[in-house]
Amino acid sequence: MPSKARPKKTGPGPQAEGAAERPQMKDKPGFSARKVAADILGNVVHKRRPLDGELDANSGHSGFRELAANDKSLVRAILGACLRHRGELNELLDRLLDRRIPEKTGRVTDILHVAMAQMLYLDIPDRAAVSLAVDHASIDRRAVPYKGLVNGVLRRLGREREDVTGDLDANRLNTPEWLFDSWAAAYGEETALAIAAAHQNEAALDLTVKEDPAGWAERLGGIVVGAGSVRLHRKGAVDALEGFAEGAWWVQDAAASMPARLLGSLEGKRAADLCAAPGGKTAQLAAAGARVTAVDISKSRLKRVSENLSRLGLEAEVIASDLREWEPASPFDAILLDAPCSATGTIRRHPDVPWIKQAYDVGVLSEVQSVLLRRVAGWLQPGGTLVYCTCSMERAEGEDQISAFLADQPGFELVPVQPEEVGGLEAVITPEGYLRTLPCHSATTDGGETGLDGFFAARIRRL
Q: Could you state, in chain order, the average pLDDT of each consecutive group of 10 residues for the chain (463 residues)?
């Protein structure tokens, strides 16, 4: 273990000096992007604000919205690295310091994480990451006394990189203990480690196409995965891809597309997509020929649903309402309830989830799911089908919900999922007949492509 001598501090100088530097710093290339990244990182991990909200083009962080397109891309990359490797970065700081940084120091820890992520996980020269981090600390009123520490820690990391990072256990460090314990209890420690390893890599881009998945895979340079999704590994603007403008496809993880497929033939049937936003499943139901009612509590998110349906040339009745208060005019033939959940199955795409969610959230959300499931099940026609799903890997939000529901609702029966309904991926079907995908699961029958969002789904028929 290398020496843990604390880097020598340099004098901060008067606060007025930091204020005088402010106009020049703002104009320094790359400075604004790093400052915004540290600000957003702090909002996410300390205030538990969802990363997507901070990066929203219309209502997100004001500094982010003002950045040029290339700087926005840099901010996204930095934040992705900071959040995927947060546990490692915290461990490294413990190794590089002889005592923890005091809490009320402005953005010191966030500034360090932003710089360390660039040095270790992004193709950015150390000197640029160090220099801009020190500049940021210099203009933060509470962080300025620690700018010497910031400089010393980062320079030491550059010198001793191999020594201090060689034995890091990324899978365990980057997974909060409560989450890892939950997965180990549900799936075994080996699978829990495989799930954690899958989270270290950004997910590919999956598309749901209206028709001809093989043809679109060939045209876009992708492959067919899951139950007929098209997967692309190249990066770039989604709206620049062939087929976007004409509404031939929409973005949707291969696992997320499976629950709607379990409703079977929908031509001419009356179907409900409940908790519908962002609308991928609504589009699936409409494309399958159903007369769709899409309900969600969020008016702003439903606006996106309507915009996507318009681009795709699909129709649905879109209603903003709380399902605990709303009542349909008449029963449905098919219902898809994508219940609000902890979203722990989406960590590959949303690396903030482990740091903004807690075990407590699972308990609270489980109660909401139970109420919604029992309420909406009564909106089914006799003989109708309901698919309950969550993008969570916690049993309390999946298997436990359905077993409890069937135990006290004798008018319903479970209809097991069949391999042919999910592209032949037998590993994603549990012994009970539930759908349970994990990030470490294979996305193709030959095992050549791995990676799916963690999803649970169960199909229930009203007797």
A: 38 38 67 97 96 94 96 97 97 90 81 98 95 94 91 96 94 97 98 97 96 97 97 91 97 98 97 97 98 96 95 98 96 98 98 97 98 98 98 98 97 98 98 98 96 98 97
Three-state DSSP class for 279?
Answer: coil
Q: Is 391 a catalytic residue?
A: yes
Which one of 82, 275, 391, 440 is the catalytic residue? 391
CB neighbour list of residue 181: distance below 8 Å, 6 or more residues apart: none
Rounded CA-CA distance 196/227 in Å is: 24
**pLDDT attached to residue 1:** 37
Question: In whole angstroms, what separates CA 331 from the centre of its chain?
Answer: 33
As a whole number of angstroms, the distance between CA 94 and CA 4 comes to 9
In 3-state terms, what secondary structure has residue 156? helix
- What is d(CA 155, CA 161) in angstroms, rounded to the nearest whole number? 10
| Helix ranges restricted to H, 48-85 | 51-54, 62-66, 69-84
Residue count of the chain, please give it: 463
Name every residue whose Cβ is closer than 8 Å to that of residue 165 and which is 6 or more positions away in sequence: 88, 92, 120
312 near 251, Cβ under 8 Å? no
User: What's the alpha-carbon Rg for the chain, to the nearest Å?
Assistant: 24
The per-residue pLDDT for 101 is: 84
* Orientation angle between helical segments 108-121 and 86-96, nearest 10 degrees: 110
Q: Is the dihedral of CA 337, 342, 344, 347 positive or negative?
A: positive
Q: What is the pTM of this model?
A: 0.91
Place of tokens 């407590």: 360
- Across 158-310, the runs of DSSP E, i.e. the strands, are 205-209, 223-225, 229-232, 249-251, 270-274, 291-296
Helix (H, G, I), strand (E, B) or coil at 285: helix
Tally the C-alpha atoms within 13 A of residue 157's C-alpha that lie toward its C-beta: 29
